[in-house]
Design goal:
The protein is α/β, with parallel strands linked by helices and 298 residues long. Helix content is 38%, strand content 23%. Strands 4-3-5-12-6 form a 5-stranded mixed β-sheet. The chain has a 3-stranded antiparallel β-sheet with strand order 10-7-11. The protein has a two-stranded antiparallel sheet with strand order 1-2. α1 (4-16) packs across α2 and α1 (4-16) packs across α4 (60-87). The longest helix is centred in the first third of the chain and has 28 residues, at 60-87.
């Protein structure tokens, strides 16, 4: 059985073509060094070096072993480095879930920051609406998820990630579009286009609760799971919507974004992971994700 140490000894003598210099380079006495090379030749059943009183040279088998040894040693070093980096949370694969309706404008800066700070981490993103990400995490199918809070989930650790105000999104020719700011009550009587509750219960309930606190129940004329669909319907004049301020990044020219004031309601984003001590890789993800979220001016 050939081990890496034997290969390193062989590489040293193959490069030096001198047993004394090779042994000194490795930091061994020459007799045990020479014995290890002889053992390697016996294990392989073939001479690797031609020895004369004047010179040492490689046999064809020795030249082939040298080429393979370089590859094996390099592979071994890369493997050990990757194992150590994975143990430190600097490499590996992360399975992250998020609801498309919950991560409008939020996910891109997180992904960009991970690519910059953790270039050896491979991200596998699960972007489904209406999915119980808590159950997937408990089952081991995901490492973490980004969700809208509040979240009624057990068996997971919920950690705040980001908080932002709401905006009203409406057609550019809407009577309220020229207002600098709006309070929730200004939207009473307007037809609404919203995400279905199943897509993002926390976000949906916060929006509805904001309207109810202002004295009215929103008249929802259409639901759509995808933000691009929601904002396209708004642009067509079918209705207005309320969204987290980060959604302003993804609005077409035909709509107007107006900040909503006069309410303490905010869109809350959180990360969830399995209970217990977070793995180094998950912890690195959480550390990188927290400062990466910024919200544009509406």
């Amino acid at each position: 059985m050939i081990d890496i140490r034997q290969l390193r000894l062989f590489v040293a003598v193959a490069e030096e073509l001198h047993f004394g210099r090779a042994a000194a380079r490795i930091g061994m006495a020459q007799p045990p060094f020479s014995q290890q090379i002889l053992k390697l030749e016996r294990d392989l059943g073939t001479p690797l070096l031609l020895r004369t009183s004047r010179r040492v040279s490689l046999t064809p088998a020795g030249a082939e072993l040298l080429r393979s040894a370089y590859d094996l040693i390099a592979y071994r070093d890369r493997m050990i480095d990757r194992v150590k980096r994975t143990a430190n949370g600097d490499a590996g694969a992360l399975r992250i879930g998020f609801a498309a309706s919950s991560a409008i404008g939020i996910l891109p800066p997180i992904i960009q920051r991970i690519r910059e700070q953790l270039p050896d981490v491979t991200l596998h993103l699960d972007d489904r609406d209406g999915v119980d990400f808590g159950a997937l995490i408990r089952a081991g199918a995901l490492d973490a998820a980004i969700v809208r809070a509040p979240l009624g989930a057990t068996g997971v650790v919920v950690e705040p990630l980001h908080s932002e105000p709401f905006i009203a999104v409406m057609p550019v020719d809407h009577p309220l579009s020229e207002r600098g700011t709006l309070v929730p009550g200004d939207l009473a009587g307007c037809p609404f286009i919203l995400f279905p509750r199943a897509a993002s219960p926390g976000l949906h309930d916060t929006i509805i609760g904001t309207c109810v606190d202002a004295g009215f129940s929103p008249m929802v004329v259409q639901e759509a799971s995808a933000w691009l669909t929601v904002v396209s319907l708004v642009e067509s004049g079918l209705g207005i919507t309320i969204a987290p301020s980060s959604a302003a990044r993804h609005c077409p020219p035909g709509v107007m974004v107006v900040p909503i004031t006069g309410t303490n309601a905010r869109a809350e984003l959180a990360t969830i992971r399995c209970e217990g001590l977070a793995s180094p890789l998950v912890q690195r993800f959480l550390d990188v994700a927290r400062p990466s979220v910024t919200v544009p001016a509406a």
